[in-house]
Amino acid sequence: MEYFDVVVIGGGGTGAATAYDLALRGLSVLLFERGELTSGTTGRHHGQLHSGARYALGDPHIAQECMAETRILRRIAPDAIEYNQGIFLAIDDEDAALTNDFIAACREADIPATEIPIHRALELERRINPAAKRAVLVPDGTIDAYRLAMRFFASAVARGAVIRNFTEVIDIEQSDGSVQGVRVRQLRTGSEQRYACRAVVNAAGPWADKVAALAQQEVPLTAAAGTMVAVEGRLTNMVISRLRRPGDGDIIVPQRRLSIVGSTLRKVENPDGLRPEEEEIAFLFTCADELIPDFSKQPYRAAWTAARPLAGRAATEKGRENGREISRDISVIDHGKTGSLKGFFSILGGKATTLRIMGELVSDQVAQYLGIDEPSRTALFELYPYDYYWRLS
Ligand SMILES: Cc1cc2nc3c(=O)[nH]c(=O)nc-3n(C[C@H](O)[C@H](O)[C@H](O)COP(=O)(O)OP(=O)(O)OC[C@H]3O[C@@H](n4cnc5c(N)ncnc54)[C@H](O)[C@@H]3O)c2cc1C
What we know:
The protein is built from eleven helices and 20 strands. By secondary structure, it is of the alpha+beta class. The strands form three sheets. Strands 5, 6, 7, 13, 14, 15, 16, 17 and 18 form a nine-stranded mixed sheet that branches. Strands 1, 2, 9, 10, 11, 12, 19 and 20 form an eight-stranded mixed sheet that branches. Strands 3-8-4 form a three-stranded antiparallel sheet. The radius of gyration is 21 Å and the shape is globular. The mean pLDDT is 96. The structure holds flavin-adenine dinucleotide. The site of flavin-adenine dinucleotide has 40 residues, from helix 1, strand 10, strand 13 and strand 18. Flavin-adenine dinucleotide binds next to helix 1, strand 10, strand 13 and strand 18.
């Protein structure tokens, strides 16, 4: 049976960053993805490079982490990012009243946020709502979700990691309370193989609870689906957000020649095959028009839905069942400590923006478990170009 030090489950951005981090520490790494790489939430998110401003009020830890990672990603993956900045718009009196607290919370999280007059905001982005009451400039940007993840995959492969897509992990083998290996099924042929390893990282995003169940372990996770709608035309170059506490339909992101409004939030039991609902699309258009009048009059391009892997369970009381109240904080679970399986680790929560630090945090724990005294070095070097993935693998 082939042996690897670590098996990573999940070929989204988190799995890619984890495989790279572990490989840079000198470990042999094998990653399985049951579909195409990035076919989970990573390939379907909104594409905002979060400065953290959205989370500054109420979720300060992830806000700080987003800002720190924005700085690092601009250095290590410059061509996967459009750093055009963002504007938060106060549309009504309630938003306007929140503005000073919002700026203070951003600064507390080390996010440079500056109020600008509305006429200056309109000079920067002429299509935004001229009736907006206040405007704040923040260092947001746009991510090319695919390229960013593929740059981590390319760098992982360059350091010797082996990536197997269209291969589903169907069992996590254990003996005497420790991980021994995995059993996988190739989805094209149906053939099954076993691989030996000393540690397994569960980076299965909104499927992380289902993967943990393969090892009879528990992961407190809420799969929170969100819908986004794209229209033709790049209405702004900057990310335009509603200045209020995080809610539905409050962000418009430019992506290439499209403008995308998002998103909504509803708890789902199964993150597979999610579809947008008609009411969600109509609601998102209404919200978008408040930020950019006439957004809904642009030619419709597409709507789609993906699930967030939120770390925690949605509260059961009325009005709090969908998971909006759950922090976006990153959670690393060492199941040898919280459960009953040594060598099994889960990583969830966070954002696409924080993929690198998620890989670092879980790899720190894996390295410690394996007795490897090597620090993370993923923040130090520019990543391999994304297309090297195919040349190298
Ligand atoms: C509506 C919405 C908008 C968002 N917008 C943004 C944004 O603008 N900016 C931002 O920074 N973040 C955003 N996010 C958050 C971000 O998308 C996620 O945090 C991130 O993509 C999660 O990546 P991941 O690698 O952890 O999960 P995923 O990308 O879902 O990867 C997990 C992978 O595991 C695979 N898998 C599952 N089970 C198995 C198995 N048994 N064997 C093998 N493989 C398996 C799945 O196929 C999947 O590809 C958004 C999320 C949503 C839902």
